[in-house]
Amino acid sequence: MYTNSEKFLTAFNRIEKILKTSMYQGPDIGFSKTVRALRDSNALIKRYSDDLLEFAELRNAIVHNKIDVTHAIAEPHNSIVARIEEIESELTLPKKVTPLFSRSVYAFQESTLLEDLLVIINEKGLSKFPIYNDTEFLGLLTQKGIANWLAVADEPTAPSVKTTLVKEVLRYEDSDNAQFISSDTLVYEAVGFFKEQISQGRRLEAMLITKNGKSSEKLFGIITAWDILEIP
């Protein structure tokens, strides 16, 4: 039966090996310095950096303050062991945006009538739609863009939803409200993209997933700002 300190040290050593592998041919530096060196370029390390730095202190306390070779003076709490094993698992097999966010995406051609798109909004409760000219991505139409169009079109002589094409409504949408990412993108890299855009004052409505992150490729899924908020 393994003690909590043994379980903790086993997980810690595995994490340390993963981190050192990520440093490639870099200098042989300590665990904490490795965490600090990687967190600016690695979304997972950045997410767990505070935990990892605290684990380093606990590891030192266990290793350097043993009563003898078999007994540690400090035994981590069950919750600490569970946490480090959870992080080890995430670092070993990090979650990618696929299959987590794989789903059917309702995309429309620019010649689609707005009326038909509104039917999908009503039936499916969706609010973000990639618009294409054949295979060329033109933009992401959202309820905000539709509302902007309605505000201008609310006149007796304005065209109705029965005759208006989605390409005409797309002109009232923010042109940079979507970003394409590859199916191999890590979940927390996607989270980082959203946060980065917010910090730059840009409203990113969705990320569109394709095999290589190219707009001309088949859509595998979509990640919205609401999806990001639900990631633990």
From TrEMBL:
Highest taxon, organism lineage: Bacteria
Sequence intervals crossing the membrane: none
Gene3D superfamilies for this protein: CBS-domain (3.10.580.10)
Pfam families per UniProt: CBS
Keyword match Transferase: no
Keywords in alphabetical order: CBS domain
Signal listed as a keyword: no
Domain named CBS: residues: 101-160
Protein name (record): CBS domain-containing protein
Originating species: Virgibacillus tibetensis
